[in-house]
Amino acid sequence: MAITAADVKALRDRTGLAMMKCKEALTATDGDLEAAVEHLRKQGLATADKKAGRDTNAGSLGIAISDTAAAAVLLACETDFVSSNDEFKAFVTKLAETALAAQANDADSLMAASFADGTSVNEGIVAMVQKLGENMKLAEVSLVAGDTVVGYNHGGRVAALVAGKGDAGILRNVAMHIAAANPEPVALTKDDVDPDLLNKEREIISALPDVASKPEHIQPKIIEGKLGRFYKERVLLEQEMLVDNEDGANVAAYAKSKNAEISAFVRLAI
């Protein structure tokens, strides 16, 4: 029986194994999907199949940093028991190091990469599922690059990466601010805010009684004025700096006072 790409994909979706392993199993079982799953299980490769539908509401974050780039990875699992396991956390760090080496900036790119020993990331995750007994999912992968790059990982629960120029210690303070900020920043500058998010915010503001009651011709000016609070709360450079800041300066003023610049950031959280 001819093995099609769709057959291979169906088996890959069931088991999480590499395409070549799936094709070999289908070839050995004459294209029978269930027989191929059993064939892989007999090799100890597909025990993850029965776990694939379980919710992954816990997890851990890992970061890896070089001189000019940094990667952050979120690997989700089912329980805090596994997310706090030292072997699981070491594996998440290994994933981040692999993402950095491969310059992977999303989950698909990292899943297509391989560890230094040649094992695919996909196979590595399946092996961890088998070993620790929980479903796992590569939830998020992010990458930043710049003249100076720093990262901050708060107990594997929230991590921030910052790229820019200037003293690494100052940029790390900004990374710590990003991790602690509530609400979290959604953009570096006002111009970077997603237009859909801004439109939604304008819609909410326009429905407020003290805005809706005003003459229609002046409502747009009032709405834009009220957006100032949104920017101060959700735009990184507009937020009040939470670390090493005694005079209430925002992040932009803080960085400028320390001869630093911020060009990019990433925040991931469980």
Q: Keywords for this structure?
A:
alpha+beta, Helicase, Ruva Protein, domain 3, Tetrahydropterin Synthase, Chain A, three-stranded antiparallel sheet, globular
Notes on the structure:
The protein has 270 residues and is α+β, with helices and mostly antiparallel strands. It folds into three domains: 5-46, Orthogonal Bundle (Helicase, Ruva Protein, domain 3); 58-145, 2-Layer Sandwich (Tetrahydropterin Synthase, Chain A), CATH 3.30.479.20; 169-263, no CATH class. Helix content is 45%, strand content 19%. The protein has a three-stranded antiparallel β-sheet. It has a three-stranded antiparallel β-sheet with strand order 4-5-6, with helices on one face. Helix 2 crosses helix 3 and helix 9 (195-206) crosses helix 11 (219-234). The longest helix is centred in the middle third of the chain and has 17 residues, at 86-102. The chain is globular and about 70 Å long. 35% of the residues are buried.
From the helix content, strand content and strand pairing, which structural class follows? alpha+beta
Q: What's the count of strands?
A: 6
List SSEs in N-to-C order: HHHEEHHHHEEEHHHHHE
Low-confidence stretches: none
Helical content band: 40-55%
Please summarize what this structure is.
The protein is α+β, with helices and mostly antiparallel strands and 270 residues long. The chain has 12 helices and 6 strands. The radius of gyration is 23 Å and the shape is globular.
